[in-house]
Amino acid sequence: MKVTLEELPAYAKGFVESLPKELGTKAYVVGLLGELGAGKTAFVQEVAKLLGIARSVTSPTFVIAQTYTINHQAFERLVHIDAYRLDSGESDTIGWKDFLNDPKNLILVEWADRAPGGMPTETHILDFTVVGENVRNIEEKKI
Question: Which structural domain, as residue segments, surrounds residue 50?
Fold first, then answer.
């Protein structure tokens, strides 16, 4: 789906509205893929606003993971992970398994292909591709 940067807030709103309304047995994980500047962090920022996060949300490139308390009927926390500096085969240095095992977590993972130990099965993926200066293609898929 082609989305302009002006349409990104509406796309994020549709995403938030589609989130599960009840807790599962594990965290709800969404992987974000795409080159630098493709819009992954901009998408997370829009989602964060919609979930009631008032403070600035930036990519946690150096701290790897940032947790925010959110307003959602099923989730209590947004966990924003930037796995760019990780290697998918490296050990769990960020508490990845703990994040995954808590059903109250909504986890958005930038550079999902680098998550420690890989992404869980049934993960939703949003793959961002730059089409033009202000246009992105966002492909939704499951792994």
Answer: 2-115
